[in-house]
Write a structure and sequence with these properties.
85 residues, 2 strands, GGDEF domain-containing protein, Nucleotide_cyclase
Length: 85
């Protein structure tokens, strides 16, 4: 993460991180996010991401909760779609 988002990746729990990126446009952010996904897949690291893009938002607590909810929704969706019969 530090290679793709230098200085902007922070550990918030055992295996949970938050990336706070400022000063770039949405397209740049999502390009960097794709780069992070490729790096993690290349290293065969399993991960879940809750992605949230907001411009001019100051309520970091609400943003973190929303991103967390997105991550859990995506994780649940993945497990339902990849459920072995």
């Amino acid at each position: 993460m530090e290679n793709v988002f230098p200085g902007n990746a922070f550990r918030v729990g055992g295996d949970e991180f938050v990336i706070i990126e400022t000063g770039i446009v949405k397209a740049q952010f999502f390009q960097k996010l794709d780069e992070l996904r490729r790096e993690m897949e290349k290293r065969k690291v399993s991960f879940s991401i809750g992605v949230l893009w907001r411009e001019n938002e100051n309520d970091i607590v609400t943003m973190l909760k929303e991103a967390d909810n997105i991550m859990y929704t995506e994780k649940k969706k993945y497990h339902l779609e990849n459920k072995e019969l």
